[in-house]
């Protein structure tokens, strides 16, 4: 009986990590599909056949819709709707004044590699639980970039997630 309980606890702790890893893979594949559909649309526009252009636009629209649906699913899984309500009720926690970095603002997307100067220890958010940010995986940290919060893999310098206008 004891072994059964221990194995159930281990399985319960592993499943959320696998689900989030699957979500990142799905989003990456969806972005790749969008790139391929854009390429197909450009090829159809070069050939000049209006039927192919119409079909390629429809395929691109479908790929973008699927990407948005996967983003919504990820947000639901992370409980971001609850977080937005909490943030609206606790505005003073998220008003941290006019924060500026020694470099200009960049609008980063997930998957982009950034220089180490942007995610040094002085920009780390040391208490993400206080702001109800989603938990991070190994070798990743939430950092502050002006009013945005960015999840960075600090070993490779890759942006994993971005929450725009996090601070008021």
Q: How does this model look, in words?
A:
The protein has 168 residues and is mostly helical. It folds into two domains: 2-78; 97-163, inner membrane protein cigr (Nuclear Transport Factor 2, Chain: A, Roll), CATH 3.10.450. The protein has three helices and three strands; from the N terminus they run H-H-H-E-E-E. It has a three-stranded antiparallel sheet, with no helix packed on it. Strand 2 and strand 3 (158-163) form a beta hairpin. Helix 1 (2-47) runs antiparallel to helix 2. The longest helix has 46 residues, at 2-47. The protein is globular. It starts with a helix and ends in a 5-residue tail after the last strand. Residues 17-21 have low confidence and may be disordered.
In short:
Helix content is 51%, strand content 11%. It has 168 residues and is mainly alpha-helical.
Provide the fold topology.
Elements: H1 2-47, H2 50-78, H3 80-89, E1 140-145, E2 148-153, E3 158-163
Helix pairs in contact: 1-2
């Amino acid at each position: 009986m004891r072994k059964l309980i221990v194995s159930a606890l281990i399985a319960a702790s592993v499943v959320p990590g696998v689900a989030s890893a699957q979500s990142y893979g799905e989003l990456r594949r969806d972005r790749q599909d969008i790139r391929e559909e854009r390429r197909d649309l450009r090829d159809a526009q070069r050939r000049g056949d209006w039927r192919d252009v119409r079909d390629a636009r429809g395929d691109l629209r479908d790929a973008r819709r699927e990407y948005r649906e996967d983003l919504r699913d990820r947000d639901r899984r992370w409980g971001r709707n609850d977080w937005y309500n909490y943030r609206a009720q606790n505005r003073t926690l998220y008003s941290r004044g006019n924060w500026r970095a020694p470099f200009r603002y960049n609008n980063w997307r997930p998957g982009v590699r950034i220089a180490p100067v942007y995610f040094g220890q002085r920009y780390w958010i040391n208490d993400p639980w206080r702001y109800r940010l989603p938990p991070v995986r190994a070798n990743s940290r939430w950092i502050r970039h002006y009013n945005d919060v960015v999840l960075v893999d600090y070993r490779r310098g890759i942006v994993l997630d971005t929450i725009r206008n996090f601070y008021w």
